[in-house]
Amino acid sequence: MTELTAPLSSRRRASDNPVVKLAKRIPAFLVIVFLILITAYPLFWMVINSLKGKSDFLDNPSYALPEVWMWDNYARAWEVGNLGTTITNSIIVTIPSLVLIVILGTAAGFALEVMIWKGRGGVLLYVLAGIMIPGQMIILPLFTTFFSIGLVGSLWPLIIIYTAGGLPLTIFMMATYFRAIPREVFEASTLDGASILRSFRSVGFPMVRNAVLTVAIVQFFLIWNDLLIALIFAGQRKLNTIQVGLLNFSGEYGAIDYGPLFAAICITVGGILVLYLFLNQRIMKGLAAGAVKG
Amino acid sequence: MNSVLADKRAIAILLGPALLVYTLITMVPVVWSFVLTFFKGNPLQGFDFAGIQNFQRLFTDSYVHDAFWFTVKYALLTSIGQVVLGYGLALLYMFVLKKSSSIVRTLVFFPVVLPTVAISLLYQKLFQSAPNDGLVNELLVNVGLSGVDWLGAGDTAFIVIIIMDVWRSMGFYGVLIFSGLLDIPEDIIESARMDGARFWSLFRHIILPMSLPILFASAIFSINGTVKVFDSVFALTGGGPGNSTTPLTLYMYRTAFQYSDYGYGSTIALLLTIMCLLITLLLFRSSRRDNTL
């Protein structure tokens, strides 16, 4: 009978009873509460501890709220942790890298997927090989070279390495997106007298705008969160990126200055949180699309 | 018509810059590093030809042996954790939360985007034991157990690293596998349900077999990332205590930048590259089969 009135919602007899139905939801509900707890609580814990004084941290349980709310920790973290400089450095490195990756990568993806020429399969494979190469395999020659031409001591090595490092995955992703656009679109646009370069700029690039954003998101997180390259080429205090700066701050003051260290971590996490609030669906989709780069 | 799309000059202008940057900054250094494996020394003191000494050392070095097995153990356990929990999450999104899963998905994904250094420092504090207990030890003490010096011993530090890396990326694998599950045709599941299949047998006979390709691809993605682990270990334990949590990546970094042995460092990097190469071959074979790429 229930099959007739509500064929979709009650396939099993037992679930007709509302109490049973509710009881069945309880395990799922608990799992969700547990998930939210293990994801969000450590972050909440970090925030309350960023607002504690030193004795408060040592004398009271860490899950207690602060006795006195030490907002001053944030000012000290910013100053002693050199955050102004490190965030600026990270931005100075990330933005040019992203622009270069997007322009070079999209153009190359177009040339490899839309243009017709002999040997493009081989070139694509050659580029793809770059996805698997670990940073360790390239840093020693690069360090030697950048040292001998005097670039060590500036942020240039980071920009150059991040750009080159981002290209294989970007070219691969862009080629995939261009594959979805019929070649006739580009041929038609050249009928009006536009050169193929112009047709790339005014037809091809706009058509993959969404893909460009996806690629930029993937690369943003890879570059912004990088530690290995930054440790080697931005070790000097004035060159520290945000990751290296945070690590150094922890090494120098982390054992004595808990509050400011937590505050510095909160500031680092907070910036990303704001970005995530606005772009979360895109970020999730984008990073899943770039999964091949572990 | 094809002549427009076969314009050699346009191809050179579009492809040239990217190919040049990639070749100079990635492929040339790879070959150069390979050459370095036959030398001993560093740029400041100069290089001496060493033949296959570095390779002989590689196979007898107990640190390499330990670092290799640490890397393998870490990569396998972390990948299993990430994929199993990710699958659990994906099933939860798909069959329990259904249309309302978006909020939970978004929340559990959040740690994925956080900087590794920040997370590692947070975990140092969560698992702290001196001078005072962190949250985890406080919980243990409150339920009547005794606190553990988590980062003070290799075995427990290893557990913390794995917990951290599973915690911060399970949301990612949840979303990845969830998007794979969406591809299972709904009418297959529906008709099995109509035939009276209970969830468990539905899962065992239909959902699990149909999600194997995406699970396999996820496992390969995961190993591909975890075998290169550097940031989280470097920031959380620094490879210690002693060398107990040192993966190959970190051992290579130390060899080159602390002991200034570029030749041997390159040899370790080559071992790592070969491991990555093997994993990548697996990756492309699997992706060709199920089109996840």
From TrEMBL, chain A:
InterPro entries: MetI-like (IPR000515), MetI-like_sf (IPR035906). Belongs to the binding-protein-dependent transport system permease family. CDD domains: TM_PBP2 (cd06261). It comes from the Bacteria. SUPFAM superfamilies: MetI-like. The lineage of its organism: Bacteria, Bacillati, Actinomycetota, Actinomycetes, Micrococcales. Keywords: Cell membrane, Membrane, Transmembrane, Transmembrane helix, Transport. It is found in: Cell membrane. Signal peptide: none annotated. The keyword Membrane applies. Residues 87-279 form the ABC transmembrane type-1 domain. It holds the Pfam family BPD_transp_1. The chain crosses the membrane at residues 28-48, 91-112, 124-149, 155-178, 211-235, 255-279. It is a multi-pass membrane protein. This is Carbohydrate ABC transporter permease.
From TrEMBL, chain B:
CDD domains: TM_PBP2. It is found in: Cell membrane. InterPro entries: MetI-like (IPR000515), MetI-like_sf (IPR035906), UgpAE/MalFG_permease (IPR050809). Residues 68-283 form the ABC transmembrane type-1 domain. The keyword Transmembrane applies. Keywords: Cell membrane, Membrane, Transmembrane, Transmembrane helix, Transport. The chain crosses the membrane at residues 12-39, 74-96, 103-123, 157-182, 202-223, 262-284. It is a multi-pass membrane protein. It holds the Pfam family BPD_transp_1. The keyword Calcium does not apply. Gene3D superfamilies: MetI-like. Belongs to the binding-protein-dependent transport system permease family. This is Sugar ABC transporter permease.
